[in-house]
Every structure is written in structure tokens, then in C-alpha cells.
Amino acid sequence: MNETELFEKRITELADQSYARGIVTFSDFLDLNQQHILHSRSWRERGVAVETSGGYETAERRMAAFVPDGLSYEWEFPFVCLRVEPLSEKFAGEMNHRDFLGSILSLGIDRSVLGDLIVRGKTAQIFVEDRMADFIIRELTRVRKTPVRAFPVTSDADRFRPEEEQKTGSVASVRLDSVAALAFGLPRSQISDRIREGRVFVNAKLVTSNGHPLHEGDLISVRGCGKCRFDGSVHTTKKGRLMIRVSRFV
Fold this sequence. Notes:
Layout: H1 3-21, E1 25-30, H2 32-40, E2 48-53, E3 62-68, E4 79-86, H3 97-105, E5 114-120, E6 123-129, H4 130-139, E7 142-143, E8 146-152, E9 164-171, H5 176-184, H6 188-196, E10 200-202, E11 205-206, E12 219-222, E13 226-236, E14 242-249
Antiparallel strand pairs: 1-3, 2-3, 4-6, 4-8, 5-6, 7-8, 9-14, 10-11, 10-12, 12-13, 13-14
């Protein structure tokens, strides 16, 4: 049984458990490929609905919840947001996304229990499953050579959001390859290659067509490039091209 078959077996078991016991069951954090598989299945026939969350609207890594029909109690996703910051800002070294993530994974933690990690300066926030939060708070004491501390962020207002870089440009039509090429500053041929290689997702669903039409608010993820949002058309130029606006997450 390959990795995809194992994953399909696992989420099917979670769905069946949810229906049989009348409770909400949860997956670990899912990457884009896993979310594509999840959303490709029809769950209503198994008596459940599926909801996903990664802690904020545009999160890439997301946890799935299988909710049985007729559920009568309130529930919430079992993950928390932790902030990791230097003990002394003055003496902290430079730290990037790879440094923070590598230090957490070096504790022996599997990537599947971790959601998105957002870095702002020398501070990071990461979404983690409830069951691992205390362990990380206790054991994560250093990132590279910088002593750090980790603690829960309890208020949504205190959480980071990815910074956005807005860009406006013209395209012949609102199709995936054109919009992504504009957002990431790449030739369409390079975007087309990535689409063909199965490295491009729209709203967490794998898309293999260059001409896939986009709608305002669609999230585009390109492996090796990052993530952006199509913000819609601005106006049509005299030559009949569309001026569009995109937001790239940086």
C-alpha cells in the first residue's frame, strides 16, 4: 500500500468513526496534496461533512474535521498558536523560516502535527496540535544560537497574518498561467511547466490545465514559488487586455 492509499484509508476511517460514534474526528495538519485528495471525495454518502482550518483564512496547511450529520454539540479545532521569540531581542541573531522550523522538528516532532509557520522579523508563530503544545513550550529553548521562549497566543488580534505584496498588471485573459506568471514574476512557460508537473493548486485543489479560469478571491499555491490571491479585474485597456490585481504573500 503506497502513501496515497494509506492516507485515503486513514481519512475514511476517521469519517466512519465520526458517523458511527456521533462525534467530530480530526486529522493531522494536511499538506496541499492531501487536501486535494480530501476534497476529491464525496463524504455525504458516509453521513459526514468536512470542514478545514489552519488558524487563519489563507492558511496553507490545514486540519480536517469530519462532522456527523445532526451533531448537537459545539466543537473547535484542537490546535493552538504558539509564538516563538528571543529571550533578548538585543542579542538575537538573524533567524528565518527554515531556522525556526528546523529547531522545532529537531525536537523529534513530526511535521504533520504542525501547521503554518509565519515569521516576522526575529519572531515566529506556528500552529500546533494541542497535544504537542506543552512539549514545545518546555523543550524549545534555542533557535540556531539564539535562546528563545515559546508561549501560546490567546487573542486572535495578537496573531500574525502573512504580509501581502500587491501587484497590478495586464493579461489577455483571467487564466491560471497568466495570473500566476504575473504574481510571481515568471515567464508563462515556467508556470506552465509547474502546472504540468502537478505543482500548482487553486484553493487547495490540484489543477493541471494552463487555461483554468480564476475567480476573484481564488488562492493560488505554486510549489517552489509561494502563494498568492487573485483580487479581480480592475478595468479593460484600449487594446482589450484586462488589468488585474493580485496579492502575493511574503
